[in-house]
């Protein structure tokens, strides 16, 4: 009986209007779906087109603001009485500093860090990068350090007193080799000294091919001083690398702008860069920086000069 009823239902003719309505609804639904997908694809294409159609020189300026922000880069470390201790140890002669850094108001403001104790974060920007590299240079030079005592600076055949980071330091009230690894301004444990050495071996700078474990120039010695202060204060390794990348960027602005362009061409944003990789020999040594320069030299607006190694 049920089979007969089912047969009658199937034999009934479906009205043409119903078929048309079903077809129309299906077509409309597919049309809406296709429109939505096409709109998403169009938006993606517009975004990509806007990026690639930007004036290359404009892109360079945008990247420059990311690498060298006008407000500078603030670390989580305080100045405390580091400057005062450097003066007391003879690593900094205040009168010599005044001759260099008091020609403008910014320099006069920086001089305060050589007196008393300051509960202010260490910041680097375009106005104080020279003051900071010199002050950290003095710190790296004078602080008692396993890197200086047992590392390549004391290696066989090395004339330690003739290095740029030693012979070049003329802003102390004592001679550079009298200062060299002489005062435990930052009292590091043996384990902390080992961590300093480990990090220093992974940090390079574009002025030479040596790591910070071989601080033969001012930037290397300054980086060593900062690593010691950061390790003493318990900063993580990744944070220390991040801070040093910012320091290097202000000390060698042209090199790190070129690095930002290099990574941008690979769709890697500056804020997403692996900081340890960026500071490695492959990218931050003189050889690595030259390789990157050659890779981006055709980009309009890249021209400029790198940092120097003088006081």
Keyword list:
single chain, 311 residues, mainly alpha, two-stranded antiparallel ribbon, 5% strand, globular
Q: How would you characterize the overall build of this protein?
A:
This protein has one domain. Helices cover 58% and strands 5% of the residues. It is built from 17 helices and 2 strands. A two-stranded antiparallel ribbon has the order 1-2. Helix 3 packs across helix 14, helix 13 packs across helix 14 and helix 14 packs across helix 17. The longest helix is centred in the N-terminal third of the chain and has 37 residues. About 4% of the residues have low confidence.
Write the layout of secondary structure elements.
Blueprint: H1 2-11, H2 16-52, H3 56-67, E1 73-80, H4 82-88, H5 94-101, H6 105-110, E2 118-124, H7 129-142, H8 146-150, H9 164-167, H10 176-179, H11 190-200, H12 218-232, H13 237-251, H14 253-264, H15 275-278, H16 281-284, H17 286-296
Antiparallel strand pairs: 1-2
Helix pairs in contact: 3-14, 7-12, 11-12, 12-13, 13-14, 14-17
Structural class label: mainly alpha
Give a count of the beta strands, DSSP E runs of length 2 or more.
2
Strand order of the largest sheet: 1-2
**Biggest beta sheet attributes:** 2 strands, antiparallel
Distance between the termini: 106 Å
Low-confidence stretches: 41-53
Mean pLDDT: 87
Which word captures the global form?
Answer: globular
- In terms of quaternary structure, the protein is single chain
- The total domain count is 1
């Amino acid at each position: 009986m049920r089979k007969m009823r089912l047969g009658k239902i199937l034999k009934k003719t479906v009205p043409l209007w119903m078929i048309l309505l079903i077809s129309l609804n299906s077509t409309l639904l597919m049309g809406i779906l296709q429109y939505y997908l096409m709109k998403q694809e169009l938006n993606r294409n517009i975004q990509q087109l806007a990026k690639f159609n930007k004036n290359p020189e404009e892109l360079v300026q945008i990247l420059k603001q990311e690498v060298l922000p006008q407000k500078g880069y603030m670390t989580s470390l305080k100045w405390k009485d580091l400057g005062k201790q450097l003066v007391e140890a003879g690593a900094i002669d205040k009168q010599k500093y005044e001759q260099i850094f008091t020609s403008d108001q910014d320099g006069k403001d920086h001089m305060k860090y050589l007196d008393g104790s300051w509960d202010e974060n260490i910041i680097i920007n375009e106005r104080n990068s020279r003051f900071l590299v010199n002050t950290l240079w003095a710190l790296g030079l004078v602080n008692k350090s396993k890197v200086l005592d047992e590392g390549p600076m004391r290696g066989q055949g090395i004339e330690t007193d003739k290095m740029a980071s030693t012979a070049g330091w003329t802003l102390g009230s004592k001679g550079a080799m009298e200062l060299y690894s002489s005062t435990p301004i930052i009292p590091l444990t043996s384990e902390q000294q080992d961590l300093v050495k480990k990090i220093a071996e992974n940090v390079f700078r574009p002025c030479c091919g040596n790591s910070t474990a071989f601080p033969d120039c001012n930037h290397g010695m300054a980086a060593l001083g900062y690593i010691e202060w950061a390790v003493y204060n318990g900063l993580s390794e990744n944070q220390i690398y991040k801070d040093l990348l910012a320091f290097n960027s202000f000390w060698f602005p042209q090199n790190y702008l070129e690095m930002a362009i290099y990574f941008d061409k690979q769709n890697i944003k500056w804020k997403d860069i692996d900081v340890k990789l960026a500071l490695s020999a492959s990218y931050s040594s003189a050889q690595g920086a030259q390789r990157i320069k050659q890779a981006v030299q055709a980009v309009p607006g890249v021209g400029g000069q790198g940092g120097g190694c003088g006081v």
